[in-house]
């Protein structure tokens, strides 16, 4: 009997399965005041509805990504013949335009990549050795032509925005109204300027409180921004000048050979060169929990994805 009860009615104290909760609820279905007795038990219907909504949202995001990819491939296919090398690109010694490289990454254009001779041909176009990597002395030229590995950040709030937000406190608003009333009554009863002293004192106190609050919040905002910047400043291994070295993801340039291992986050849109058993998790982008089986047939890597297994570059 004890084994039967444990098997059919035992509920784990932490994160019990839906099946176990359903069996337990079925066993105690006839109880007095079930709403109160089950108030600490998970709402299985709500949990199932939330899970259904989550899966629907992930499916919509996944479909949108596929549709966007197909549309971009169609657009890029029409524009493929219109990429002409600019004088700036030719003078720098490169054989491909920045916009064309961007089109490869965003639309996973295998045909466009093959049109440049595959990975070896693309490496030649961006003037990089797949063995020795880029030449450090030429990095400023690459950054000038192809740009920096940074995105435009949303500007942080200025001091006066914090000042305005501090003024929105309900208590301070009531005090400001009281100060205005005090000034009006004081001038009417005691005349100018003696009648406004009390109200003016309240206003100055309010401004002092608001100023202190705004300064404190502004300093915290700057500290948080600095900490967030340090957190995002991830170091990765690259091959430059024929040897491995660590650089910040912000210092990566087009043509860098980046070495990835388990747990690494792909620091930029890239193309798989070589490796073994490389599995990349795209759940942070599409919600898809299964790892992508990226490879020589599907060489495109998306920035922000995470390496689950294997290694590559």
TrEMBL record:
UniProt-listed Pfam families: CaATP_NAI, Cation_ATPase_N, E1-E2_ATPase
GO MF entry, a single one: P-type calcium transporter activity
Coiled coil: none
Source species of the chain: Prunus yedoensis var. nudiflora
This protein's UniProt keywords: Magnesium, Membrane, Transmembrane, Transmembrane helix
Transmembrane segments: 170-189, 195-215
Protein name according to UniProt: Calcium-transporting ATPase 4 plasma membrane-type
Source lineage: Eukaryota, Viridiplantae, Streptophyta, Embryophyta, Tracheophyta
Residue stretches making up the Cation-transporting P-type ATPase N-terminal domain: 115-187
Cellular component per GO, a single term: plasma membrane
């Amino acid at each position: 009997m004890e084994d039967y009860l444990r098997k059919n009615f035992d509920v784990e104290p932490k994160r019990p399965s839906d099946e176990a909760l359903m069996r337990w609820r079925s066993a105690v279905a006839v109880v007095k005041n079930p709403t109160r007795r089950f108030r600490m038990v998970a709402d299985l219907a709500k949990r199932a509805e939330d899970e259904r909504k989550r899966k629907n949202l992930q499916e919509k995001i996944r479909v949108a990504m596929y549709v966007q990819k197909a549309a971009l491939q169609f657009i890029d296919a029409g524009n493929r013949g219109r990429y002409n090398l600019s004088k700036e690109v030719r003078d720098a010694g490169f054989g491909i335009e920045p916009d064309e490289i961007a089109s490869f990454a965003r639309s996973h254009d295998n045909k466009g990549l093959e049109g440049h001779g595959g990975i070896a041909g693309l490496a030649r176009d961006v003037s990089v050795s797949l063995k020795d990597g880029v030449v450090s002395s030429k990095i400023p030229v690459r950054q000038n032509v192809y740009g920096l590995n940074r995105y435009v950040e949303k500007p942080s709030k200025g001091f006066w925005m914090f000042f305005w937000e501090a003024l929105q406190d309900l208590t301070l608003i009531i005090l400001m109204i009281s100060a205005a009333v005090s000034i009006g009554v004081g001038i009417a009863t005691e005349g100018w300027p003696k009648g406004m002293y009390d109200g003016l004192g309240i206003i100055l106190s309010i401004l002092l409180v608001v100023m202190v609050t705004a300064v404190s919040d502004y300093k915290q905002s700057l500290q948080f921004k600095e900490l967030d910047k340090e957190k995002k400043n991830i170091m990765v291994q690259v091959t430059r000048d024929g040897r491995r070295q660590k650089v910040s993801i912000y210092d990566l340039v087009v043509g860098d050979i980046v070495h990835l291992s388990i747990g690494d986050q792909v620091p930029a849109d890239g193309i798989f060169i070589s490796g073994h058993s490389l599995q990349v998790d795209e759940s942070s982008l599409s919600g898809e929990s299964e790892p992508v089986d990226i490879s020589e047939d599907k060489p495109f890597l998306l920035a922000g994805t995470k390496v689950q297994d294997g290694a590559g570059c």
